[in-house]
Amino acid sequence: MPITKVEGKNRDHRVFLYALSTCGWCKKTKQFLNDNGVEYEYLDVDTAGKEEREEAIKELRARKAPLGFPIIVVDGERLIVGYRVDELREALSL
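-> structure tokens emitted (94 positions)
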């Protein structure tokens, strides 16, 4: 998958973001992570190739995630769906 890594000083948690390139809430989530120096990886599902997109959707279904974006996976376990600043702060110890 065409995954992008964003370097950050806050590396306490492994953060993966499923996003859409045109989604305003996804952009706000990326900005929140950037503003807080969080290192993370992301995939813009809508710009991925067909196989990568299908693989991402399969992974999300396996996690029983609703297909709404953004979807943030913290430490491979905690799932946060939508732009939820309070949940992100708690999950990332910010």
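The CA atoms of residues 6 and 71 lie 16 Å apart.
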